[in-house]
């Protein structure tokens, strides 16, 4: 009897254990793995369990990375890279640099939109879709018609990145194939564990940063109290904030927040705001900062053919620092003046019907929309602005009568007939070099893409005041600039792309950077960029 009882007893116990192991144990295991206590334990102790999915523990020796999404023009993209360098130095992370986008750029956008725009730049898939005459999300963002109107080039093809890596120990990888980011990081072969990726964008996500205006915690606490009710009202009565951001949030990522991010990859959104991403003012950071303002990562002179083309033009203008550069965006000026209500005279009588309707409805948007008087007035205002802005010695020189010289002869002899432009240039250089060293020789870039001397109705007042104004058209006419200078540059090998046209802004930057002074009307971030350029 006792034996039978004992046998039953054993069976019951066995059955009980079987039950436990089949039903309860997996449940225990699972709840164990997801409990916060367990993750904390794992973090401290390392990988003690092997079956449960493990929370990532950072290995101080593993390489860590940061990247960002590019947007806007060259100066903004360059500023983003500069900020990335600072952040990489601060966190000892390797930079995964997106390429430089040239032409058909898009402005700042919130994180998700920038990400989508970035992914859409993948030309291999875009080209396939376009070849098949199909449309999808990608062609919606990057239309097939304009596929050859923009390119991406690696930063290292125009800037010396090696010197920065050497001097500051910042490792830089360029993402030159693929547009995968985050868990799909192309530069690391994709297939990244989601836990290894942190998305950070204080311009898009409040949660990521600290309020810009946040000053004193005590003051903040005082401010908070009376606002309790209003914030309750806000959250209960107003619809949840789901509308799209139209401009960057004023939030800041401070140094502690930056260092607290442990993930292997940080994917930033836009990185063009230095103020929003802080780093310690350590000695090495200050050195980097100084270098980035004066000597490093400033002049896009690493592309041999581009640099050679710019050197020829600079040489023709009399050499480095012998000329100055003027950049005019006349359409923008017209639009600004129209908004300010200063333009009275529209050329509506001379315009085609559809242009007339447009001008009447929306106001003038180009010089052609203005009548002769208004054009003249606007250009006179530009000349005044130039006079106000150029170094005083240049202004005085320009305002004085031309002294007896080759230039005086050329101007007098050809007063009423088209000038031999090359002869004029030679006379201008001669005057500047040998007679009046502060006399300005200008290289003009303008949004209309016209040679100023062909449009006296627009550029007349400028040329009256500054006869020594030359442009790209002169360089083309003289064969100094060609429309095939990019030929032979190994990375520019897509025959359907007009590289000379797309890279013209970089050529302009190289020319302007080697000038004595530089004026942009109206100003854009390019002015800030060029003011950093080394002046010797
Ligand atoms: C930043 O905010 C986003 C959106 O809320 C969030 O997904 C992400 O995890 C945050 N990043 C960090 C490091 O907290
Ligand atoms: C000139 O300004 C207009 C209007 O802001 C802009 O659309 C255009 O791209 C500018 N042109 C150049 C050459 O910068």
Quick tags:
binds 2-acetamido-2-deoxy-beta-D-glucopyranose; 4-stranded parallel beta sheet; 5-stranded parallel beta sheet; 22 helices; 536 residues; alpha/beta; Rossmann fold; 3 domains
In short:
With 536 residues, this protein is an alpha/beta fold.
Account of the protein in words:
This protein is of the alpha/beta class and 536 residues long. It folds into three domains: 20-51; 65-294, Rossmann fold, CATH 3.40.50; 304-532, no CATH class. The chain has helices spanning 2-34, 36-45, 74-91, 111-120, 123-131, 137-141, 162-168, 217-237, 255-260, 283-294, 304-316, 330-340, 353-362, 372-389, 392-399, 406-413, 421-435, 456-465, 472-477, 499-502, 504-513, 525-532; strands at 65-67, 94-97, 100-102, 151-153, 172-174, 197-200, 210-211, 251-252, 265-268, 324-328, 442-446, 469-471, 518-521. The strands form four sheets. It has a five-stranded parallel beta sheet, covered by helices on one side. The chain has a four-stranded parallel beta sheet with strand order 12-11-10-13, with helices on both faces. The protein binds 2-acetamido-2-deoxy-beta-D-glucopyranose (2 copies). One 2-acetamido-2-deoxy-beta-D-glucopyranose is lined by residues 329, 331-332, 447. One 2-acetamido-2-deoxy-beta-D-glucopyranose binds at residues 198-200, 205, 207-208, 261. Residues 36-52 have a biased composition (Polar residues). Residues 36-59 are annotated as: Disordered. Keywords: Membrane, Transmembrane, Transmembrane helix. The chain crosses the membrane at residues 7-28.
């Amino acid at each position: 009897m006792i034996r039978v009882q004992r046998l039953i007893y054993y069976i019951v116990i066995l059955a009980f254990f079987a039950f436990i192991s089949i039903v309860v144990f997996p449940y225990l295991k699972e709840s164990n793995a997801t409990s916060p206590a367990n993750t904390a334990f794992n973090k401290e102790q390392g990988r003690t369990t092997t079956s449960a999915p493990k929370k990532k523990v950072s290995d101080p020796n593993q390489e860590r990375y940061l990247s960002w999404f590019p947007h806007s023009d060259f100066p903004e993209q360059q500023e983003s890279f500069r900020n990335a360098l600072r952040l990489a130095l601060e966190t000892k992370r390797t930079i995964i640099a997106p390429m430089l986008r040239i032409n058909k750029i898009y402005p700042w956008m919130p994180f998700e939109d920038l990400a989508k725009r970035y992914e859409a730049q993948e030309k291999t898939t875009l080209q396939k879709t376009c070849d098949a005459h199909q449309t999808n999300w990608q062609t919606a963002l990057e239309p097939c018609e304009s596929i050859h109107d923009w390119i991406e080039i690696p930063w290292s093809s125009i800037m010396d990145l090696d010197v920065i890596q050497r001097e500051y120990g910042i490792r830089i990888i360029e993402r030159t194939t693929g547009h995968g980011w985050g868990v799909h990081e192309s530069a690391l072969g994709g297939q990244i564990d989601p836990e290894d990726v942190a998305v950070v964008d204080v311009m898009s996500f409040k949660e990521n940063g600290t309020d810009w205006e946040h000053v004193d915690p005590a003051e903040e606490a005082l401010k908070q109290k009376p606002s309790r009710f209003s914030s309750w009202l806000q959250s209960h009565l107003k619809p949840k904030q789901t509308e799209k951001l139209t401009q960057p949030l004023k939030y800041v990522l401070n140094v502690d927040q930056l260092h607290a991010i442990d993930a292997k990859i940080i994917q930033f959104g836009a990185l063009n705001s230095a103020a929003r991403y802080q780093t310690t003012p350590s000695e090495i950071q200050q050195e980097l900062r100084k270098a980035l303002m004066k000597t490093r990562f400033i002049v896009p002179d690493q592309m041999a053919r581009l640099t050679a083309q710019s050197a020829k033009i600079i040489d023709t203008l009399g050499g480095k620092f012998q000329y100055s550069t003027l950049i005019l965006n006349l359409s923008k000026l017209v639009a600004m003046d129209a908004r300010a209500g200063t333009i009275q005279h529209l050329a509506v009588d001379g315009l085609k019907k559809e242009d007339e309707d447009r001008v009447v409805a929306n106001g003038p948007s180009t010089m052609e929309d203005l009548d002769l008087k208004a054009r003249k007035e606007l250009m006179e205002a530009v000349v005044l602005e130039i006079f106000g802005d150029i170094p005083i010695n240049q202004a005085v020189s320009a305002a004085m009568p031309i002294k007896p010289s080759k230039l005086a002869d050329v101007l007098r002899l050809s007063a009423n007939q088209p000038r031999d432009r090359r002869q004029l240039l030679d006379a201008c250089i001669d005057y500047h070099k040998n007679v009046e060293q502060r006399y300005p020789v200008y290289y003009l870039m303008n949004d209309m893409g016209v040679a100023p001397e062909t449009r006296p109705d627009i550029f007349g007042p400028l040329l009256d005041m500054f006869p020594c104004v030359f442009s790209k058209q002169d360089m083309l006419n003289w064969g100094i600039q060609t429309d095939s200078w990019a030929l032979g540059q190994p990375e520019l090998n897509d025959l359907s792309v007009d590289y000379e046209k797309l890279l013209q802004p970089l050529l302009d930057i190289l020319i302007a950077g080697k000038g004595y002074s530089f004026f942009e009307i109206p100003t854009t971030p390019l002015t800030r960029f060029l003011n950093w350029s080394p002046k010797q």
